[in-house]
C-alpha cells in the first residue's frame, strides 16, 4: 500500500512538473493548468489518480497540457516535453483506476466485423465527435487525437480555453511582454490559486446582474454558445483538432468549414453495464436513470441550437457502434478511414 501511494505521489509530481515546464516554455501566466500551491496541487492530483470517477477531469487536464505543449516553438524543448507527456500518459493508463479502464466491446458483435475526399491543401483536419454517455466516445476521441498528434478539446477544455481568452481581454502586458493583471477580481477569477477545472460556485444576484450586462442581456448559456461558435471557427483556421460535442459539426457546416463528423454510440444495456463498471458506486437503477437523463439533455441541447435530431444517421458522415469494435478498435477504424482518404 505504501509503495502504491509513493508511486502515485511520484506520478503526480511528474504531472505537476510537466505543467510547470510548459508554462516556463510559453511564458504565459494563463498557460498553467495547476497554478496553485505545489503541495496542494500534487495532493489533489494524487486523489484524481486514486479515484476512477475523477478520470475524466484528469484526462482533460493532461490534454490541455499537451495542447499547449504543441505550441512551443523550440523543437528540442517541445520534443522533450512531449516525450515526458507520452511516458506520463502511459503510466496513468496502466493504473487500476485509469480513465482508459473499462471497454465497451461486445465480443460477439466484434467477431462479425471483417470517406470521401473533402479537404483541400490549406484546410485543417477537424474531426467533430458526438457520443452517447457510456459508449467510450470520450476515450476514443482522446486516443485518436493522441494517435494523430493533434489537439483534443472536450467541453471542459473548450470552456477553459474560452475563459482564458476572455481573461486575455482583461490583461495588460509589462515591458517584457508578460501578462500583468492589475484587477484583483480578474486575478482571482482567472489566474488565482484555483485550478483549471474546479467545481462550479453558487452565483449571487450581483453576479447575475454582472452577467446580464456582460452578455448584453442574453441568457448566459446563449452567449456562451455564440462565443464558443466564434472561437471554434477561429480555431478551424489555425489548427488541426478533435472536438467533442458543442454542436461543432453543425457550426462548421453552417460556416462552410471542411470537417469530418462522427457519432459514436452503443446499445443502451451495454452502456449501462460499462457505466457501472467504471463507476463502482452506481446501482443499475441509478445508471439507467443517469443515462436517460443525459440522453434527453443532449437531444434537447442539440435540437435547440441546431434544429436537427441528435444521433440521427443522416446528420453525420460516420456512425460507430463502439460495442462492435471496442475503444482501441474504434480508434483503429477511424484511422484506417483517414488513411484511405489520404491514399
Helix percentage? 55-70%
Main sheet makeup: 5 strands, parallel
Residue stretches low in confidence (pLDDT < 50, at least 5 long) are: 171-198
The span between the termini is 51 Å
| Beta content | 5-15%
Shape: globular
Class from helix and strand fractions: alpha/beta
Query: What's the number of extended β-strand segments?
Result: 7
Average of pLDDT = 78
Return Rg in Å. Answer: 21 Å
Order of helices and strands: HHHHHEHEHEEHHHEHEHHEH
**Largest sheet, spatial ordering of strands:** 2-5-1-6-7
Please, how many helices? 14
Description:
It is built from 14 helices and seven strands. About 8% of the residues have low confidence. Helices cover 57% and strands 8% of the residues. The radius of gyration is 21 Å and the shape is globular. Strands 2-5-1-6-7 form a five-stranded parallel β-sheet. Strands 3-4 form a two-stranded antiparallel sheet.
Keywords:
8% strand; two-stranded antiparallel ribbon; 343 residues; 5-stranded parallel beta sheet; alpha/beta; globular
Draw up the topology in text.
Blueprint: H1 2-26, H2 38-50, H3 55-69, H4 75-93, H5 107-110, E1 126-131, H6 137-148, E2 151-153, H7 155-169, E3 172-173, E4 179-180, H8 184-190, H9 205-214, H10 220-236, E5 241-244, H11 248-254, E6 260-265, H12 268-278, H13 284-306, E7 318-321, H14 326-342
Parallel strand pairs: 1-5, 1-6, 2-5, 6-7
Antiparallel strand pairs: 3-4
Helix pairs in contact: 1-2, 1-3, 1-4, 6-14, 12-13
Amino acid at each position: 500500500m505504501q509503495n502504491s501511494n509513493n508511486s502515485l505521489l511520484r506520478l503526480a509530481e511528474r504531472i505537476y512538473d510537466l505543467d510547470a515546464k510548459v508554462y516556463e516554455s510559453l511564458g504565459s501566466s494563463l498557460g498553467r493548468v495547476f497554478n496553485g500551491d505545489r503541495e496542494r496541487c500534487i495532493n489533489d492530483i494524487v486523489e484524481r489518480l486514486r479515484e476512477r470517477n475523477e478520470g475524466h477531469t484528469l484526462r482533460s487536464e493532461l490534454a490541455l497540457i499537451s495542447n499547449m505543449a504543441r505550441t512551443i516553438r523550440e523543437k528540442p524543448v517541445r520534443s522533450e516535453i512531449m516525450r515526458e507527456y507520452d511516458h506520463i500518459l502511459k503510466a496513468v493508463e496502466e493504473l487500476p483506476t485509469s480513465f482508459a479502464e473499462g471497454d465497451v466491446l461486445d465480443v460477439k458483435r466484434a467477431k462479425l466485423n471483417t470517406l470521401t475526399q473533402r479537404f483541400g491543401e490549406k484546410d485543417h483536419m477537424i474531426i467533430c465527435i458526438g457520443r452517447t454517455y457510456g459508449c467510450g466516445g470520450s476515450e476514443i476521441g482522446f486516443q485518436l487525437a493522441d494517435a494523430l498528434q493533434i489537439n483534443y478539446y472536450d467541453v471542459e477544455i473548450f470552456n477553459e480555453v474560452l475563459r482564458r481568452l476572455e481573461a486575455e481581454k482583461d490583461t495588460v502586458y509589462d515591458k517584457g511582454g508578460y501578462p500583468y493583471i492589475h484587477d484583483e477580481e480578474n486575478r482571482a477569477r482567472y489566474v488565482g490559486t484555483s485550478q483549471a477545472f474546479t467545481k462550479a460556485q453558487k452565483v449571487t444576484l450581483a453576479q447575475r446582474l454582472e452577467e446580464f450586462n456582460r452578455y448584453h442581456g442574453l441568457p448566459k448559456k446563449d452567449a456562451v454558445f455564440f462565443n464558443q461558435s466564434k472561437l471554434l471557427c477561429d480555431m478551424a483556421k489555425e489548427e488541426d483538432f478533435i472536438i467533442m460535442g458543442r454542436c461543432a459539426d453543425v457550426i462548421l457546416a453552417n460556416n462552410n468549414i471542411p470537417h469530418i463528423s462522427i457519432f459514436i454510440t452503443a446499445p443502451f444495456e451495454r452502456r449501462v453495464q460499462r457505466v457501472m463498471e467504471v463507476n463502482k458506486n452506481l446501482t443499475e437503477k441509478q445508471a439507467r436513470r443517469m443515462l436517460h437523463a443525459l440522453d434527453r439533455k443532449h437531444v434537447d441541447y442539440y435540437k435547440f441550437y441546431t434544429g436537427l435530431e441528435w444521433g440521427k444517421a443522416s446528420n453525420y458522415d460516420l456512425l460507430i457502434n463502439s460495442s462492435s469494435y471496442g475503444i482501441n478498435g474504434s480508434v483503429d477504424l477511424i484511422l484506417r478511414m483517414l488513411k484511405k482518404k489520404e491514399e
